[in-house]
């Protein structure tokens, strides 16, 4: 192996290539998670991970590549081990730590990390290799052993009393919860239902309890989708969440239901029971459909008159006499600006409508990615006097994607960086190639975002409270950006702390994964 550049390996001969293939296969067969980070790039991003690391963390490769390792700690940022890792990276030293990490689903696991620095012939640290092992069981055993030794007898006494109280407490919750709950035995006979089920589906307990689920209401529950859930999906995938079932009941009409099913595997009295939670979303889905229809119709209806107004303003600006007053010129100039803002807003609403209805289309064609970003930055910089946009790095001059949509993403992220950092003067944009991914990072020095909002800001129409107060808007720009990047097979994320600015980054895959990645 001659070199490692931008996450890609080059080879001196076929033997070296075979050796690397064997090494890669060995790493993927390892039970230890292995990552490689590039210390020559800003923020030391991950450029390689093996399959074990994906399994340990719960993230897929396209969600890992390009990130700094800190994303595994999520909001748990005050661990002293983080400082030890940062110091080792700074000095280019090897280090071993045990640190709390979190899987994609939020589950805590203890990670035993061995990190080694790779240096070039001049002693400069170029890369780091991290070998990681999940030692959660060992840590948990150590903590539990000490805890149980001191409190075992007391816990037994308290548990007996607590179980009695919890049984009564849970029974009251089951009866008051605003979802229909059904408990089945392994033969799919109804053991119990709550009051909400009885009221929603207009049955009595005598008509349900002890009966086969499919026979309820003289066969009204003999639903193919329900059978698929209980007989095919649940036995192999426990639990099953948000499973949609639509059925036309003879007495209560058509219902769209969202089912959560869980197979309970306990010893003793409650062994092998199936719990089904049924949420009636018929009205909610109809409201959402009407809202989306209104959004689409309103956007289209506004587009035509706005285009006419824009045309009239442009005509007035062209036919304006030379001796017209400066006040009138300024009025027309501001009118043109606000018309353009309204036009952009309507375009975004149309994009949202197309996304919701599945009508957004990608027109993939090869284009010069770096040139596109540089031209977008030049255009924004020409219209900005308050901020300097500093662009650095390169990714690729040949990318196959929808150029207009990617321009929309880059433009939106940089415009947001300017908008939400009114007291700063610098926005930084960095292009890079990380393994077989393009990475674009937009960093501002503005107000920042609290960690609890990092995922929600990509939801449709979501706005953080304090941001909404200072900067009114509809909360659709980041939603559109996220959908565009996902449609290209990429990932968009944010790293931010309140009062310390934000960095929005996205990665786009260049090609399918190969042995050389």
In helices, the fraction of residues equals: 40-55%
What's the overall average pLDDT, rounded?
Answer: 83
Largest sheet: 5 strands, antiparallel
What would you call the shape?
Answer: globular
Determine the structural class based on helices, strands and strand pairing: alpha+beta
Instruction: Show unreliable segments.
Output: 1-11, 512-517
Number of strands: 19
Across the major sheet, the strand order is 4-3-7-6-5
Number of helices: 15
**What's the end-to-end separation, in Å?**
14 Å
How much of the residues is beta strand, in percent? 15-25%
Using only C-alpha atoms, the radius of gyration works out to 29 Å
Structure overview:
With 517 residues, the protein is α+β, with helices and mostly antiparallel strands. The chain has helices at 14-29, 51-57, 61-64, 80-91, 136-176, 195-200, 205-208, 216-219, 224-233, 282-318, 326-357, 369-382, 403-419, 465-470, 477-487; strands at 3-5, 8-10, 33-38, 46-49, 95-102, 108-119, 125-134, 180-184, 190-193, 240-249, 253-264, 273-280, 365-367, 388-393, 399-401, 426-434, 437-443, 491-496, 502-509. The protein has a 5-stranded antiparallel sheet with strand order 4-3-7-6-5, with helices on both faces. Strand 5 and strand 6 form a beta hairpin. Helix 12 packs parallel to helix 13 (403-419) and helix 13 (403-419) packs antiparallel against helix 15. The longest helix has 41 residues, at 136-176. It is globular.
